[in-house]
Amino acid sequence: MRIGHLDFDDRPLFLAPMEDVSDPPFRILCKRYGADMMYTEFVSSAGLLRDQEHEHQKLEIFDEERPIGIQVWGGEIDEVKNATPMVDAAGPDVIDINFGCPVRKIVQKDGGAGVLRNLDKMRNITAAVMEEATRPVTVKTRLGWDDDSIHIVDVARMLEEMGVAALTVHARTREQKYEGEARWAWLRKIKEEGVQDMPFIGNGDALDPEAIDAMFEETGVDGVMMGRGALGNPWIFDRAKKYMETGELPPPPDWEERVQVVAEHLSLKCEWLGERTGVMEMRKNYSSYFKGFRNASTLRHKLMQPETKEGVLEVMLNFKPGAPDIQIPSASLPEQTADPEAVQTKKPDVPDDLPTPGGDGAGAEEAGTKKAELPPSMA
Fold first, then answer.
1. pLDDT tens-digit map of 214-248
2. Do 239 and 297 belong to one domain?
């Protein structure tokens, strides 16, 4: 499969753009565990034009994450057009347009899935972005606004005729939001009747390795994008690939590996946002990471108390009596770049000092005591 200048192996796996989830710390972990391509949190075109710091922060990308796309949304054609050069200047490998978010505050502004009520506007926004962009443009959308307005086959044809580099479809309507089952039969129909050469990526209910494999088999999509299935679960990419290669389901990560990855995620968050903000922002992730473990609710409660990174690490490392020592690696974000020529589609080498899944480590006394150094672009 090829998206613009990017070549992918068979059955590539993508990390979905998710607000408050798909930030650099989490993306770096997903890349290490086998994500072939990732997207940023969706960026507000209006926020960029108003110079909102939070929206500009979403444009930060790093070489270790490539290939990566920045997703932009907006309900006004001129607004999206004028914001596109800012997105383009950040140096993503592709620019993705959000025509699928079902959240009310987005839809009310005719953004996200709101544009599914006005396909002419979808065409015009897409054309405006393509006019301003110097790199491939992709689109993520849904089946339609509701069951009475599913025109996704015609939409797919329209976007391919316009020169869109790839299309991702969440197999639900906006009315469904995330309720009920994703309707994979529509993905098959889009693949067979809607697209010819444009890469087509499926999304919706790809929550585990078996479901990911089933989506490929049942729909014929060229790639699969994971959203909720990756929450607190960066291992899903590696486990899914091994399952598709061997037919055997790899065991999920054990307690020690989970603690180790959560600790690194926390360290990266603190480095990127500052310790206090990083600790606070990380709190929303603990439920997903430790779901299903005995006494997980007790641990989550304890993790909400500390206001420092060392305090959080101490809680995790001491929670399970008799647990082996776990090495908490010194986490460091890579140097930022906006050079589109520096694209690499292969999984980056893992530094020697990072632990391998399930590996042994140094003593708990050393855990979390190293301060990660900010890359030059963030100093």
1. 999 999 999 999 999 999 999 999 999 999 999 99
2. no
Q: Would you name the residues annotated as active-site residues?
A: 101
- The reply to whether 220 and 321 lie within a common domain is no
Q: Give the C-alpha separation, 294 to 187, whole Å.
A: 38
Looking at the structure of the chain, the number of domains it has is 2
**Do 17 and 69 fall into the same domain?**
yes
Given 205, 222, 246, which residue is the final one in a domain? 246
Say what the pTM is.
0.83
Task: List the CATH number of the domain containing 98.
Answer: 3.20.20.70
Return d(Cα 287, Cα 285) in angstroms, integer: 6
The domain of 182 spans: 2-246
**Residue that terminates a domain, selected from 246, 266, 284:** 246
Residue 139 sits in the same domain as residue 285: no
From the number of C-beta atoms within 10 Å of its C-beta (0-12, 13-18, 19+), residue 103 rates as middle
% the chain with pLDDT above 70: 84
